[in-house]
Design a protein that fits this description.
Keywords: Transferase. Pfam families: CoA_trans. Its EC number is 2.8.3.5. The protein is an alpha/beta fold. It has a single domain, classed as Glutaconate Coenzyme A-transferase, CATH 3.40.1080.10. Helix content is 21%, strand content 29%. It is built from eight helices and 14 strands. Helix 5 packs across helix 7. It is globular and about 50 Å long.
């Protein structure tokens, strides 16, 4: 992976930060549900003409929010995710054959992203053994008539001895992406990032998986102001930092609000 030599990695705006994302680029995008979603960078992408994107993310936002914005604009061609969630447009495009979707066990997806940033090309896991995940035939893309147009290929399965017993494990490949898009609570000009509570979900993993990682930060501080023990993602993984305005930092949606009567 290429790493920037610049010390000050701040970029003037989100639009400048994503200006070189080309058609067909692969993106590792942080967030879980609507927590920790890099919405400002996604909005900036929506203002470009980029299309045919390949996205790796836990889910694909909701209707009208997060990656759901790019879905509605038909900018996304393929998604690797573990959860369709509350996004009706995501489900509609997948079932109608407009979108290719590789559903992956959540822990496997997390490890594929982490492995990408660690230089590990592949790994074995027990998740998915004995299912379509390992055996193939999982529908990746449907045809307009509802038949399966593209299905997943079978994966290598090997046995390893664990606790005195031989057990099967499936080979999964790491997921290196052209760009990583993440949202952090705090970051410095060197790209060191800190995430707040539940926003520390897929964000560190997406940051590791991107060849070029862009971070939007709610609070920009000077180098040295973050205790090294508090850093969740070191600046070696981050190439561009965008400081959010107070208004942008406050834009946070709730995926499913549940209340009770007073």
């Amino acid at each position: 992976m290429s790493r920037t030599s610049s010390i000050d990695k701040t970029v003037a705006s989100a639009d400048d930060a994503v200006a070189d994302v080309p058609d067909g680029a692969s993106l590792a995008v942080g967030g879980f549900g609507l927590s920790g979603v890099p919405i400002v960078l996604i909005d900036a992408l929506s203002r470009t003409s980029v299309t045919d994107l390949h996205v790796a993310s836990n889910n694909c936002g909701t209707d009208g929010w997060g990656l759901g914005i790019l879905l509605e604009q038909h900018r996304i061609a393929r998604v690797v995710a573990s959860y369709i969630g509350e996004n009706k447009e995501f489900a509609r495009q997948y079932l109608s054959g407009e979108l290719e979707v590789e559903l992956t066990p959540q822990g496997t997806l997390a490890e594929r992203l982490r492995a990408a940033g660690s230089g590990v090309p592949a790994f074995y896991t027990p998740a998915g053994v004995g299912t379509w995940v390992a055996d193939g035939a999982m529908p990746w893309r449907y045809a307009p008539d509802g038949s399966v147009a593209v299905s997943s290929p079978p994966k290598e399965v090997r046995e390893f001895e664990v606790d005195g017993e031989r057990k099967p494990f499936v080979l999964e490949r790491s997921l290196v992406c052209d760009f990583g898009l993440v949202r952090a609570w705090k970051g410095d000009r060197h790209g060191n990032l800190v995430f707040h509570r539940s926003a520390r979900n897929f964000n560190p993993l997406a940051a590791m998986a991107g060849r070029t990682t862009i971070a939007e930060v709610e609070q920009l501080v000077e180098p040295g102001e973050i205790d090294p023990d508090d850093v969740h993602v070191p600046g070696i993984f981050v190439h561009r930092v965008v400081e959010l305005t107070a208004e942008q930092a406050a834009r946070k949606h709730i995926e499913k609000r549940t209340t009770r009567e007073a």
